[in-house]
Task: structure prediction
Amino acid sequence: MKKVICIFCKEEKEKSKEHIWPKWLQIEVGGNTKGIYTGTYYSMINPFPHSTRKHVGDTLVLGDVCKDCNNGWMSKLEEDFKPILSKLLSNKQYITSLTKSERHSIAVWSFKTAMVINAGSNYRKIIPDNHYFHLYKHQTVIKNVKIDLGFIKSKNELLWIQSPVGAGLMRTSEKELFHNLLISSYKISLQIKSLGIRVTYFPTAKETGYQIEFNEENKSIRIWPYLKNPNFNYRSEYEDIRSFDIDCFIKPAHNTAHKQWRAQ
Result:
């Protein structure tokens, strides 16, 4: 019986193999677990992909998860998320009537999946260790993480993009602080058929007076923490996962002097 220090509970327990894209989701999208799925990694200083890798779904696994976590609370997340995803994919308008419980289930599943993607990839580990333990202990999303949903034109995909946030509006006196915060940020976008899910983290956003914004023609809706958007149009679609991914930036939460900052 091989043991591992679990990235979630931090205990040494029997090793499991956590599929980065769950088997049931691979079957939902491609009909089997032999599909090839693409992950793309962007640095903060270059608009072009830093790395793109294709993975066979059945072998795309993370070995740093224990059986107790994989077969316990993580399995429950999958069961809670399944019926909600089915509703969203079969009826786009349902996104405007999600209950608080459903929004929470989507957010926690997305947070978990984003972490598993980053931990299991060859990209640098941009998610802090304490985020894993927070999810294990509290079964909810950590502070300063935002979860946004939108729809994407291509229909039969399982894709992800990960990077630091990379752009925003900063106060004129805070270039060094803002740059350091951006380096510590992360953004992981998922595409499941036509549904886009964006997980964005900007450290100490509230404490430093910044907020994570989106504004491209009201195509996104924030489900966690819930933010009303009366102009959201569920019929509007992003061209692809990249356009969905970059529709996110940082700006000061109050009307103070600021300037645009974008990695070049």
Q: What stands out?
A: Residues 100-119 form the longest helix (20 residues). The longest strand covers residues 12-19. The radius of gyration is 18 Å. The chain has a mean pLDDT of 86.
